[in-house]
Amino acid sequence: MKFEFTPEQEWDSPPDPDPGQDQEGPPSPAALIAAAGERLHLRTRTDLDRLHTSLNRMLYTVEAARPQPEPPLSASGSEQESGLFRPEVFGPRPRGGGGG
């Protein structure tokens, strides 16, 4: 593929500005300060949201890693020997209201 070189005189000229629109100069210092303040406020809010999320994640991690308190053991020797597993819990319920 070949490209032809066009001399600069044949280039399209930039469009002329509309006479109805005012040519704006550089923004005023007050506008620059206001824009900088908005950006600073937005960035601060974003950073605080990220910090809050990170702290919540850290709190969850610490609470999940904390050892859970063991339930109090009753005075019966069978529960103390077998630890926390109690096979009688999975058995059928005792029938009858008497102690017999």
From TrEMBL:
Q: Where is the composition biased (Acidic residues)?
A: 7-21
Task: Please identify the protein, giving its name as recorded.
Answer: Uncharacterized protein
Q: Where is this region: Disordered?
A: 1-31, 63-100
- Source domain of life is Bacteria
